[in-house]
Amino acid sequence: MTDDVSDGGRTSRLSWLQVGLLVSSVVILAAVLGSILIRSGGNDTQPASAAPSDKRPVKVVITAGTEFAGEEQTDGGIAGLGTFKASGAITDRGTETTYRKLTGPNDSVILLRYVTKGEKGRIAYMVKIDTTRRPVRPRWWIESATGAYKGLQGKGDESENATYTVSTLTGRVWR
After folding, report:
1. With bands split at pLDDT 50, 70 and 90, how would you rate the model's confidence at 139?
2. How confident is residue 29, by pLDDT bands cut at 50, 70 and 90?
């Protein structure tokens, strides 16, 4: 079955199949746009500058050697106090506290917890260093975050300078 459609003196014929496809395309487009509107919260406000988009790179440099605890910590106590500077998807700087714990067989796993406090909020980074694996590859992830960083997730690699006074975390963060 076809309908005649007039277009400035020209007549074109649309089949019911073409009309159905046109209508279904419009319905699908409306559903997609509605879904986008619902996911965005129904407004067009921009996210905070501290809110990185999906899995953007970040580099966090932690200088933990400014003030060391009196003895080497193995039970989760404070191992050092320092400063941090984050760039990339996170841009902030402030103070940092390092906690250190040994675990695993023969204390072969080192757990470091870097708690950073900047102007925009706090982020606690966990670092796991399994000394039995070769090559040793320290990995970090975000344990918790507050303020502008609430809900932030991330992971990556950790490296240190030769004297273990500067730790660098590189990786990706997302919400």
Report:
1. very high
2. very low
As a 3-state breakdown, the chain gives helix, strand, coil percent values, each rounded to 5, of 15, 55, 30
Give residue 63's pLDDT.
62
What CA–CA distances, in Å, run from 122 to 63, 79, 97, 111?
16, 18, 11, 19
5: tokens are 């459609």
Whether 81 and 96 have beta carbons less than 8 Å apart is answered as: yes
Task: Give me 77's structure tokens.
Answer: 């106590």
Q: Give the model's confidence band at 108: pLDDT under 50 very low, under 70 low, under 90 confident, else very high.
A: very high
Task: Judge contact between 78 and 104, C-beta under 8 A.
Answer: no
3-class secondary-structure state, position 124: strand
Q: Where are the alpha helices (DSSP H) in 3-152?
A: 16-39
Burial class (CB in 10 A: 0-12, 13-18, 19+), 105: exposed
Gyration radius of the chain over CA positions = 27
| DSSP codes of every residue in 9-33 | TEEEEEEHHHHHHHHHHHHHHHHHH
Q: Which stretch, 17-26, 110-119, 165-174, has highest mean pLDDT? A: 110-119
Is the distance from CB of 152 to CB of 142 less than 8 angstroms?
yes
